[in-house]
Amino acid sequence: MRMAEIIDVEALASDLDAIAAEDETGGGSARARGKVLALLKAASENGRQAVKAMLFEDGHGGLCAERLSALQDILIRAIHDYAVAHVVGTVNASSGERMTVLAVGGYGRGKLAPGSDIDLLFLLPYKQTAHSEQIAEYLLYMLWDMGFTVGHATRSVQECIRLSRTDMTIRTSILERRRVAGVEALEAELAERFGQEVVEGTSAEFIAAKLAERDARHAKFGDTRYLVEPNVKEGKGGLRDLNTLFWITKYHYRVSSGEDLVRLGVLSRHEANLFVKADDFLWAVRCHMHFIAGKAVERLSFDLQPEIAGRLGYNTHPGLKDVERFMKHYFLMAKDVGDLTRIICAALEDEQAKDAPRFRNLVRNLRSRARKIPGTVDFYVDNNRINVSGPDVFQKDPVNLIRVFKLAASLELEYHPAALKLIRRSLRLVNADLRENREANSLFLDVLTDRKDPELHLRRMNEAGVLGRFIPEFGRIVALMQFNMYHHYTVDEHLLRSISILSRIERGDLVDDHPVATEITRALKDRVPLYVALLLHDIAKGRPEDHSVAGAKIARHLCPRLGLDERETELVAWLVQEHLVMSMTAQQRDLNDRKTIVDFAEKVQTLERLNLLLILTVCDIRAVGPGVWNGWKGQLIRTLYWDTEPLLTGGFSQASREDRGRAAKARLADALSDWPIAEREAYIDLHYQNYFLTVPLEDQRRHAEFIREMRLAGLALATAVRVDAFTAITEITVLASDHPRLLSQIAGGCAAAGANIAGAQIFTTSNGFALDIIRINREFEGDEDERRRAQRVCRNIEALLSGREAMPNLLARRRTSTQQAGLFPVKPRVTVDNALSNRFTVIEVEGLDRTGLLADLTGAIADLSLDIRSAHITTYGEKVVDVFYVTDLIGAKITSQSRAERIERRLIAVFENPEEEACGGGSLSFPQAVGIAKR
């Protein structure tokens, strides 16, 4: 292990002896202790630096952890021996004073991360004595003074046995014990008694406890291996899962290495090598994380990922950044850990009976309930799980590798670990012949379009490795991460989750959230193209070319193989190529501008495409991650759908819009039936048609009460707050006199409180007021805390709009969030377009999001003497796409090329010089604010 390069043990011992020899008390004085501490601190730091250098040199994480553990052994042994020889002064202790220092936990396995705690067990023959207490105390205080976090316990052998019987944590800890210092006989006694009195005959109990513990941990840290910021230690597919396998195999098989498991036939040679490879990789990542942070950090966060990717030697390839290649490797390793778990669990179901009669009876009872599956002799049902009837079922008929998933789906079965183990070991049979097999493709399509739970069976197919081999293009995006803050999962996980959403919509589970999508799916005559399109819509991610265009090419190649006809193939290809168009149009365009609807209808062309595109869009957005979908996006998409549908069916769009507007007004009138008729009619006349068509009835009613209360109070300015924990969005409603800089001032009020705007809706009323609805990202978990924070935002807005506070002063105190600029570089882009609207110039701005950005952008637009008629604010994680429909101050489009270029330069400067903007660029002076607010 090259320990001589890490620390000179003999020199350390000699130096310690010299300190004791020079001390008048023989080494027990405070002065001597100080010298010992300084010597050991230096030895520890030098040793750790040497270990760190070796990690960079050879890249072996497992060796790094072992070296750190060995270094820690040397230090603890040195302290212990010094205390025995020079502090306590009784080298020849009596039998009752004997003590053994055991490493337990991860340290007991002989592996230690740079920032890990040191877990020690002081093992005694009987009870604590003054002799053992002095040694333990000296050792612990020395370690604490050296800066280590030490977990420790002092127990007799009998106490260890007694506590292990009732406490699984202590039992696991003692299972991993390893002697570091002290007498050897005590550890041997514990080992013998632990094996005979605790382990013997309790495998079933221990395994059940460890697997339950694992499941609870997964639920806490995210029950998927594919979170983009995974917990390397505790997350699914992380080191703790490997630890669990180690505990289980060591406990049940009485082994201590992968070689022993190969010899017993539990793992193949390849699988044992996989175990070692995964362990080494995860340890390398964890050790680098701790060295970078200078402490124990277990979440592989975005800021750590690029640096670790560089340290591990990953390079950028066309279509994939270095960090994305690193994280893909990470997720593939996490998947391998899951495969090993299933393989070992399968072996346990067969082997457990040898040591546990009760478990043998259980297995016998389960197998007695096994039943045949009509039409096949290759599979049978074992305790509601599909299993193979023999080891050659896939070899004799490779189509069975797809058929097993079809049978499980149609019979609503889970998968026996033995079946998954054999599938994994038969992947070489998934070759070109199987991919072109008509029956295999038909069976796969049945799995994909299963009416009960297609996601479950596709997920099992993916985890087993079959999906990526049967569809090689899918294999390329397995475990592929997109390095941004928008996507919460890997690409393959996202695709499977989108199919799950579709299945739930089809079953009617999400009718309240998606009434239109649910209604459309019920009327679908051909479901297959939609499911295939969802499976393929992001399948070309990670390539140099546009993934939508490349995905359409893949669809045209793959769909005929799956059995789709020419019409269905072209439909799928179109859906894949245009899968983003509805979302982008709904969120980034003015749906009240007729040209938006006409352009969208020309692209869609048929009602069938529109119907399928709406469903695909809903599933795609919802599968991105928690909190990405919200009711506001749903309303925008429904509005776009209903405005486009008449154009595609030969109806009259304008008449249909007017009819829906009248119907919406009638619904609000019914909701306000308790109001006096005259007041109700006057209120409804305040709003323009677009308000009724884009705002849900519940919100309309809330706005009505808000405006009524404002009028009764005689206010010219009012704000209101609504919090929503489910969507993680807090809504601020502002009613104020309309003026060109209103949105800029509102955005500035949000920025001054450090609030990040996620979206905005702007409505003007017929009496010269503006109703602005601002949605900010939630900051606090509790509703009351979040409500108080939102009220602070409202106070800032009111101070600006009433003239009590000047924009430059308020923005100077704002909290910026530009630290991610280097982490997620987004090149700013500004487009000035006159073709998207007949009445307005459309300015589309794309760049890195930050707190206060919208205030700066809208302030800059006001400086350019432009009037914002409509704003559409959309964030995609770290990236923002803001779209402004503007005119000049006389209501005309911006037709001058030189002026358009000036607009582009000015708005690009907002991104490139944020500090200048923060100092008041584009902000409104105090006198102007007062004058406009009173207008």
Structure characterization notes:
The chain has 935 residues and is an alpha+beta fold. It has four domains: 3-200, Beta Polymerase, domain 2 (2-Layer Sandwich), CATH 3.30.460.10; 395-470, Hydrophobic Seed Protein (Orthogonal Bundle); 473-642, Hypothetical protein af1432 (Orthogonal Bundle), CATH 1.10.3210; 716-933, no CATH class. The protein has 44 helices and 16 strands. A four-stranded mixed β-sheet has the order 3-2-1-4, sandwiched between helices. Strands 5-6-7-8 form a four-stranded mixed β-sheet. A four-stranded antiparallel β-sheet has the order 9-10-12-11, sandwiched between helices. Helix 12 packs antiparallel against helix 13. It is globular. The termini are far apart. 45% of the residues are buried. The model is unreliable at 353-360, 815-821 and 919-935 (pLDDT under 50).
Principal-axes geometry comes out as globular
Low-confidence stretches: 353-360, 815-821, 919-935
What is the number of strand segments?
Answer: 16
Strand content: 5-15%
Number of helices: 44
Helix content: 55-70%
Query: pLDDT average, as an integer?
Result: 87
Radius of gyration: 34 Å
Strand order of the largest sheet: 3-2-1-4
Keywords: Hydrolase, Magnesium, Multifunctional enzyme, Nucleotidyltransferase, Repeat, Transferase
Family: Belongs to the GlnD family.
Catalytic activity: [protein-PII]-L-tyrosine + UTP = [protein-PII]-uridylyl-L-tyrosine + diphosphate; [protein-PII]-uridylyl-L-tyrosine + H2O = [protein-PII]-L-tyrosine + UMP + H(+)
Cofactor: Mg(2+)
